[in-house]
Write a sequence for this structure.
């Protein structure tokens, strides 16, 4: 890009910003629900002035040069922010690409009588804008990955509560797929809790586990063995019909492990293992006292 | 040489491991313990490993060996107080110690031993009764 076009673009800065903003506001894909117009205007103005400054720098063609550093920072900030706000990849990259149209209009006016120069300038402008757009995409994806990573961490933290359902009985409702990393977290949480509460029975409820394959079963068996080594017995409950079918079809041996269909029956079994008897309380008082409940 | 003390409590032997077991110490313990079982005709062996924080496959095997040997000599072995990290390590090593009874602490271990021995006694009495 030569000095002339840089100067021409600089001279028309106000006009460019106006047309660019106009185009963006006209666009059906404008997300005014995610971002206010004034915010967009401010962002666009900042980007445009840094860009025009870079165009007039010595190495305007090279987007890796020092002149483009502020632009990189601005674009990084914009795309990470947009990734967090929930903009789609298309919306994010078209933000930078939409500037292309306006810039070529200005260049067209300036070099109307010199087609060769116009061609050269447009190509070089395209190259710069494309490379900036790629940069935007790259940071956008990076931003999204950060969001995904954070959510994964949060999920594995919140989804492994160990509940004390009775004196000496723990319950561990497992929700979601069990992979090696999660099994580790679940196992550690359970064993720590067994030590802390001195519980003799732990119920692993897998009604929230969508599928059980041989790997998941192996993880479950490992957890049960570890708890057994510490002196606690495990009961696996919440085994649905489909899961029972897959387990048998896969030839997984669960004969050494207590299994129950529901948490209720597992609890009943734990009571009998701990010699606890639960009985309905006898109705006290005169028979007429029932009327007090308003029946 | 360092030795781990073996205490006799009625019909049971109580071993509390307070140091990290190295191979030689573990072998000595195995030897001493089996000799003690034979000498005292103990009915139960309780091994407290709550202070042990590191195990390897050798340690796991020694525990399994002690249990099997005691069983041959008619004594039940209970391992109590295993740390979570130790349990996870043993499982990852593929050692589930299937012949060993486990309990959370010494108290529960004693209770378990008592019920086990009680069962044995009544079984034997029943056997004796049926002979007459």
């Amino acid at each position: 890009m030569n000095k002339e076009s840089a100067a021409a673009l600089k001279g028309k800065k106000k006009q460019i910003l106006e047309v660019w903003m106009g185009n963006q506001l006209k666009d059906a894909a404008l997300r005014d629900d995610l971002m206010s117009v004034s915010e967009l205007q401010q962002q666009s103005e900042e980007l445009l002035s840094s860009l025009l400054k870079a165009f007039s720098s010595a190495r305007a063609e090279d987007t890796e040069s020092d002149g483009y550093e502020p632009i990189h920072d601005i674009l990084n900030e914009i795309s990470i922010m947009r990734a967090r706000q929930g903009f789609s990849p298309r919306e994010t990259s078209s933000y930078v690409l939409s500037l292309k149209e306006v810039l070529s209009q200005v260049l067209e006016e300036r070099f109307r009588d010199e087609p060769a120069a116009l061609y050269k300038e447009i190509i070089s402008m395209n190259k710069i804008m494309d490379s900036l757009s790629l940069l935007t995409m790259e940071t956008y994806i990076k931003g999204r990955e950060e969001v995904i990573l954070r959510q994964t961490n949060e999920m594995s933290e919140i989804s492994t509560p160990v509940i004390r359902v009775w004196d000496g009985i723990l319950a561990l409702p497992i929700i979601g797929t069990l992979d090696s990393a999660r099994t580790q977290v679940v196992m550690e949480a359970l064993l720590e809790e067994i030590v802390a509460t001195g519980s003799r029975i732990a119920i692993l409820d897998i009604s929230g586990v969508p599928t059980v394959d041989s790997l998941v079963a192996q993880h479950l068996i490992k957890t049960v063995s570890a708890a057994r080594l510490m002196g606690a017995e495990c009961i696996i409950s919440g085994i649905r019909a489909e899961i029972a079918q897959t387990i048998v079809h896969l030839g997984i041996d669960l004969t050494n492990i207590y299994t129950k269909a529901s948490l209720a029956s597992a609890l009943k079994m734990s009571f009998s293992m701990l010699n606890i008897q639960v009985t309905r309380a006898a109705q006290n008082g005169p028979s007429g006292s029932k009327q007090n409940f308003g029946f | 040489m360092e030795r781990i003390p073996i205490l006799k409590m009625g019909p049971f032997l109580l071993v509390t491991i307070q140091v990290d077991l190295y191979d030689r110490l573990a072998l000595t313990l195995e030897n001493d313990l089996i000799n003690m079982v034979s000498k005292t005709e103990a009915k139960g062996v309780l091994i407290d490993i709550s202070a042990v924080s590191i195990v390897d496959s050798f340690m796991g095997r020694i525990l399994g060996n002690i249990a099997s040997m005691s069983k041959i000599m008619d004594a039940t072995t209970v391992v109590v107080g295993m740390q979570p990290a130790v349990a996870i390590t043993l499982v990852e090593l593929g050692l589930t110690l299937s012949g060993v009874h486990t309990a959370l602490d010494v108290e529960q271990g004693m209770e378990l031993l008592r019920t086990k021995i009680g069962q044995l006694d009544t079984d034997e009495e029943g056997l004796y009764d049926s002979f007459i």
